[in-house]
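ok trying this again, last paste got cut off
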Amino acid sequence: MKLEGLVDLYRSMTSQDIDRYRFSYKSGKALFDVFFFVDGSPFVLLFGVKSENFSFEIVVERGFEVDPKFDRNTYKELCRVLGLEYDPDRPFSPRNFFKEFNANIPNHALAAQKAAPHEVADYRSVAEEADKIYFLGWRDNTKRGEKVGILNLEKTRRLLGEKAFERCKQKNISSCWTDNKKAAKGFVLP
């Protein structure tokens, strides 16, 4: 299924050099934070409902194609957060969910809605220092005679994206994090 609505959003994002974008989407009883990540291949849509501690990711293939199917657990949980009751005559249709979503995708990206790492962390868990979700800066491990850790690289990938992950891996750089929101720094590639 093609999500035509992503085409204009993608163009707007790329014209503003935005790799990760966040917008809201309401469906049924659920208010979703939707993240559109275009910094890797394939692209990814991350849907999260903070009040329900529920999220799922959808791969967006070339041509903005998605597979409008869910595994059994995601399907059941999505029905629950949407406030749907089982009706054997009219079962919930993931295809219709994506059709409605497609009609509500914003056409233009706003720079103020770039996805911040701590916003992504609300829906993507990390193994390394899970409470530290605010970006603090970079550490050059070569200068310290150390090597960037696998868990740090994975956290970098999940919260900052593919470009940051690749750069850190190539240059032996670690991302540094804090649990203090006031100490957070703006993210730029090392």
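PB: full thing came through this time. The mean pLDDT is 95.
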